[in-house]
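WARN retry 2 of 3 for item q-0093 after timeout on previous attempt; input resubmitted unchanged.
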Amino acid sequence: MEKPSTQTRKYVSTREKALYGVGGFVNNLLDNAVSRLTNPVLNMTLHISPSLIAILILVPRVWDALSDPIMGQISDNARTRWGRRKPFIVAGAVWSGMAIGVLWLLPSGMSEMQTFWWFLCFSLIFFTGATVFIVPYLALGKEMTPDYHERTSIAGFRMAAAKFSGPINQGLPWFAALLAGAAGTMVDGARIIGLILMVLIIGVGVISGLAPKERYFNIAKAEGQVPLRKALVETFKNRPFIVLALTNLLFWVGIAMVDYLGSYINVYYIAGGKTTVGLGYQTAYGLAQHLIALALIPVITRLSVRFGKKTTVLAGLITVAWASFLKFFCYTPAAWQLQFVVALFMGPGQACLNVVLQSMMADICDFDEWKLHKRREGMYGAALSWLTKMGIALAVAINNILLVWTGFDASLGGNQSEDTLLGLRLAFTIVPIISCAIAYLVFRRYTLSEKQLLDIRNELEARRGKVEGGEE
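OK item q-0093 returned
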């Protein structure tokens, strides 16, 4: 059992944490904004087949399986005058921001297959730009401090910014419906949303790439380069990373099921087919969940110091599973406000996992350097980024498969059969519980303790020196 301490040293100023953290706002938009609008626009509005939508969601993730590690390798081996992370963060913000604006400028009058190919092509362009931003951004956060507990604090700042974009993500379908007005469709609203997202992603993303210091840059410059194939093999031989990565994947499958299938439950079960009303309920739930998580981030950070990172993650998985169980009873036409009871548990559960898992990735990078004599935050950031995106994509794909399996037909509006609605409600409840239960069993096998990592850090500093900065 890990025996945590409360000792920490300060290497990163609050200002620097905040400037890095705002990138979490962009990271969250890049991970979720496109998929959040996909079903409401393509299925609910244009009646595109859920089977085609599942393909649209999964193909970019297959592409990410190639582009993410390549970007990680490029970033780890870059030796520019501005560093090995920051130039790519800035370029990725501009690239992905421009792409999301074009993606939602769907031309009118296209056939189902024309819409499919438009969306697929521009999705691939967008997600490639997102990779250029996300992989170096996540890597930068892992190398900002060598301190075990300060890493959790940095992750907390990132999580806080992500929670500010969370309600935006949750509300995108509702905002699109409102912007369309009575005379338009959600497609018209999505075109405006795309342009707004473009401005947000570029503006905030560039800021997050300019300010933080790269404290391991001089150490990295002294290291040689590792071929991509060898780097991938070494990464997936790291047992603690495999445990954490599988936990992260399973967690995101469960969480994303709440968000995406929840829109259908709200629109077609609770609101009786009234799209704007149901999406408003979903937005209200999302706002409550994110505000609760945001308020509890400082508490989660202290709990991690007090009880240890592993214990905090396990507690988060239990909390998310309990919240998922409550959904079957709290999502009801009799009182849509009962969804806030689910948010009361889902918010802190998500905060536990999002904050602490990112902190533990920095610990794994130390473990990796101890074994292999290389700083490879980029490769680990790429692997975790891909697994996060794959978890979200799998959830959306499962969502669309379940729509087909339960007999859902968007053209019927609020006249879905009782069997269809019951099937959706059961899946909405059961799939996340199973996902969290498996993740719990997997994560119990995580073995890196605070004491072991402190010993590793001492040996690393004796081997290659301390990072820049720090109050000793």
